[in-house]
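Data card: per-record layout.
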Amino acid sequence: MPDLGEAKEIMRNARQISVLAFGHSKVATLPQSSREELSTVVKRELTEYGAASSLFADPDADSQHHASLATRARRGSYSESLILEQLARNRVFLKPQGLETLRSAFVVVVGCGGVGSHACAALARSGVSTIRLVDFDQVTLSSLNRHAVATLADVGTPKVHCLRRRLEQVVPWCRFDCRNEVFSIEAAGRLLGEIEEVGREGKGRKVDWVIDAIDNIDSKVALLKYCAENGIKVISSMGSGCKSDPTRVLVGDISASIEDPLSRATRRRLRAQGVVTGIPCIFSTEKPGPGKAELLPLPDEEFEKGDVGELGVLPEFRVRILPVLGTMPAVFGLAAANHVILELTGYPHEYLASKSREKMYEGIQAQVHGTEERVVRAKGYDAVSIKVPVTLTDVGYLVEEVYNGRSAISGLATRLALARWRSPSEDYLDLSVEGQKRVRLELTELVCMTKEEMAKHEKEVLKGSKTPEDLYDKNVLDRVQRRMEEEKQYAKWR
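The structure for this 494-residue chain is written out next.
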């Protein structure tokens, strides 16, 4: 047996198999003893990188039998009575019409790791008969703590084919359309497009639902934005990493998702591009705390190798290790599949309602307009019919995404307001259009504070002679500056 160091090296290199698939030239080779050990476990010859030398090398008799059965079943040579018996419990629960709708559905699962594999397995076992699987990655040793069906024998094989091969042994009549590639906006039309119906050449079926189980922010935002713009129903799984409390997992609109960095980053990018609501998602309200898992720093030896970006599977993909309790991706994946099943079959469901903040946004928008009018008058101008370029969407974005629903001054989360951080310049009124008076105001100039703090700020800074440096301590000034600089980076998405 390999020692602990060799075992770690096996896991490390198994994670890099997917890098090899994209031509990475800096992947270290496994020690010979470790390669022999892993080769014995998975019962197939390994390449010098620890990857399977063939995706389907030397299938055993049992695998050949199941593959043959699945091929015949998809052609119609499988007893309908056996299918109905296997799905009997779902048939009783959903009623015959509900099950028939489920069986005729076409669902796309993007991301086939811990969350996506459990979602896919649940859909297939429940009766969905056409599933497209999209994922560029391969099964690694470290995948096995959370993947729904992968075994040691699957290490080094594409996740999409691992799912297909294992689930064909459970539901041989299910059609799996495997796409071993990265989701990108350029490929969206093809990956989320129609699938040709069996026996009806030239006839395509549109996707009924998409499950987003991607953990890369760029791909995730691209998928959700494409679905929103093209009227494709989608449910998105937010981060299950560093989470441990299944009672805190909720299904709700993306606008209500909280306490999750992936959710916050996704929501902020989408909101900046005009997608504010209408996307259901799975998220956890569990808060981080002392003693709880957190994102691991990248070891110093990795930095010493050179460009950290080269260590990623693909450009912009994470290279740091996110601790994951193996049970939590399953909870997220099953919740996503459950939502899709209920929606497809029309089964009644009513989730816990999230608190609407639209009224609060309207109040803050009116407050911003009122503050600007008072400042205009204080500067000696006529404030009648003044125009302020701040919308409800802008208010929601600033309050929720930039300032996380809290005052930048005190951290309080009640009676919130927005105000200019600094007194405007003398030429801040735009009178270039005849009959129109418009204040020059950028969103990055507005800061979230309580109404009481805003009243003091207006009196002493906006109307008075003081600066923020005269009024606030270094911690507040630094905090506001960080938020403003951060928002400048996000501005490219607006």
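Known properties of this structure: The first strand starts at residue 106 and ends at 110. The two ends are 55 Å apart (CA to CA).

See the next section for split statistics.
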